[in-house]
Amino acid sequence: MISSTSKLGGGTKHMFILGEKIKSDYKVFYAIPKSNDFSNHLNDANHFPITERKVNFSEILKLRKFIQIQSIDIIHAHGKGAGLIARLSTIFQNKKIIYTFHGIHLKCHNLISKTIYVVYEFLMGRIDSHKIFVSKSEKDYAKFSKIYIGRNNSVISNGVEVRDIKNYPKKNQRPKNDIFSKLSIISVCRFVDQKNIKEFVQIAEKLKEYNFILIGNGPKWNDIKNYITKKSLKNIYLMGKKKNVLSFLRRSDIYLSTSLYEGLPISIIEAMSIGLPIIASNVTGNCDAVIHGQSGYLYKLGEVDMAVNYLKKLLNSHKLRLKFGKSSHTIQRNIFSLEKMINEYIDLYDKV
Q1: Is residue 4 part of a domain?
Q2: Do 228 and 305 share a structural domain?
Q3: Strands 153-155 and 130-133: what pairing?
Q4: Is the pTM of this model over 0.85?
């Protein structure tokens, strides 16, 4: 398993969940930067440390040797940077590469960068034995963007554990003097451009009678904090990184995602796993997770008032929140379960 970043996020979390679940059948190694967040999965025997988001050719040569010494059969690259490292590390070694995209980022790049990436994938992507998309819309976007995907590709949706549905407290059952004393809208994400957190704040600004909770951290933390302070917003709570995320989700009422793009967001399907209704931007990945009008609502990216109106529909109806939450819970169990995902990856590894 290769990841060019050890930052806490959906792609790295997915990789370690997968690695843990298959380790009784496969001997699993990781090439990833050193990480405090995932240190419990790593040790001297299974970990080849690499530099964070940087291609280091001396490391590539050492990784090639590591692959040979350990007699590794399959290299599974998670994300764009990992794809490059995997391809360079296995040239002329006749190893099998599985490449999972985990979100295609072209919308955030200029024409020159997009062209370079498409050409790079056309040339280097032929090395891969199999390509994985984590959602159908991600695969459709790759085709639309003329990214080389070859014949050996498939969609394996991200999955999370099946959990019990949350309780849905009525107004008189809420705790007092607590951030959950009011109806609460939550989001869990890294504070990066992709997550479009400023739009989350702009939505909260129009619904000051409700509480908005943000869990996570990242390079945009200070920008968001300063924007909230400048606007004197008292209904937004920046909680930082939390280990007990599920306990926050269980006490919240609605999950909100304002992302610019996704692969298939693990944060959303985690929220679905305990039965939260979802409001999400209608972008790649989100549109696979949410069934509009059944488990939540998809709003047009940038249309803050549309998101606000959808939120009001749910906030004003306990019955509708209950209905959409139960639908979310059922969809996650049937389509986005961890067991289903693991079985599909094992079938692919055996096939490769």
Answers
A1: no
A2: yes
A3: parallel
A4: yes
